[in-house]
Automatic annotation (TrEMBL):
Matching Pfam families: EGF_CA
PANTHER family, sorted: OSJNBA0016N04.9 PROTEIN
The organism of origin for this protein: Gossypium klotzschianum
InterPro entries attached to this UniProt entry: EGF, EGF-like_Ca-bd_dom, EGF-type_Asp/Asn_hydroxyl_site, EGF_Ca-bd_CS, NOTCH1_EGF-like
Keyword Transferase assigned: no
Cysteines joined through disulfide linkages: C261-C271
Signal peptide start-end: 1-28
UniProt keyword annotations, A-Z: Disulfide bond, EGF-like domain, Repeat, Signal
Superkingdom, natural source: Eukaryota
Xref: CDD domains: EGF_CA
Record bears the keyword DNA damage: no
Protein's recorded name: EGF-like domain-containing protein
Single GO molecular function: calcium ion binding
The EGF-like domain, residue ranges: 257-289
Length: 293
């Protein structure tokens, strides 16, 4: 079938556009505060920074460090977080280490003790590349699933003796994937230990699966036109608006019909928005299916 409307006769025609109001995902529950300054507070949350209805929240953490002097002595500070409720996202964070004589590792517990880390070495800055964490000046590795606490530790093979003039310190930290861009200058930056880095935590509703939660409709969090999704990083579940709807799935009537005609503009002919969907047609005097492709 021809995917465009074929001109059949010369005649003027008008395309009627139906504009529907859309629901913003950041809406609060009626009667609840929706803003704190310029920060949105979407239901079901209170006044806390950087929380998303999509299942994650962002916090700031500092880097662990170990700095050496010419005698080989070090001043160091190990870092970590330990949370009862929120697992560290294993898909949105990376464990990162900086240094030219550095072994960095992150340890924690997820029912049993785990340890992972990476090595980074270099004898000068010639081979170190800005933006690269491939093991020369900077290295990265992933975080295991279902981790609710960790401690970052650092060690050195030669106490930075051979690189002391351009890299006196090792650093290690967990950071949101894509939020840190390595620079060669960081190797000599003694103030790097004062920086903080974003870390993404996962949150869920309760500790039941979707199947279990649906058995208790009074407490079930997913409202009309939404779907339940079992958590990937521990117990609990999340809600999302089904295809064709948008908004806040935790609010009554929070998932509202999306006007695909206005947003996607998929038709070369006339677009007809329907609840949760849409279709195209050709105006009178044309033939085809009305789709652009």
């Amino acid at each position: 079938m021809d995917l465009r409307c074929l001109f059949k006769q010369i005649a003027p025609f008008a395309v009627k556009l139906t504009i529907l109001a859309t629901w913003v995902a950041g809406h609060a529950k009626p009667g609840c505060q929706s803003k704190c300054g310029n920060l949105s507070i979407p239901y079901p949350f209170g006044t806390v920074l950087y929380i998303s209805p999509d299942g994650y929240l962002r916090i700031q953490t500092a880097a662990a460090y170990a700095c050496y002097n010419s005698s080989g002595r070090s001043s160091h500070q190990f870092r970590g977080i330990h949370l009862a409720k929120f697992p560290i996202s294993h898909t949105k964070n990376m464990f990162t280490a900086i240094g030219c004589d550095t072994y960095a590792y992150v340890q924690g517990s997820l029912g049993h003790t785990y340890s992972t880390g990476c090595l980074t070495f270099c004898y000068n800055t010639t081979d170190v590349i800005n933006g690269s964490c491939s093991g020369i000046g900077c290295c990265q590795t992933v975080i295991p699933k279902e981790v609710r606490g960790y401690t970052v530790s650092l060690s050195s093979s030669y106490s930075h003796a051979y690189v002391l003039d351009f890299n006196p310190c090792s650093y290690g930290f967990v950071v949101e994937d894509g939020a840190y861009n390595f620079s060669v200058s960081h190797l000599a930056d003694n103030s790097f230990s004062n920086k903080t880095f974003p870390v993404i935590l996962d949150w869920t509703i309760g500790n039941q699966t979707c199947k279990e939660a649906k058995m208790h409709p009074l407490n079930y969090a997913c409202k009309e036109n939404s779907a339940c999704i079992d958590a990937e990083n521990g117990p609990g579940y999340l809600c999302k608006c089904v295809d064709g709807f948008q908004g806040n799935p935790y609010l009554l009537y929070g998932c509202q019909d999306m006007n695909e005609c206005d947003k996607l503009k998929p038709c070369s002919g006339t677009c007809h928005n329907t609840p949760g969907s849409y279709y195209c047609s050709c105006p009178e005097g044309f033939e085809g299916d009305g789709w652009k492709n």
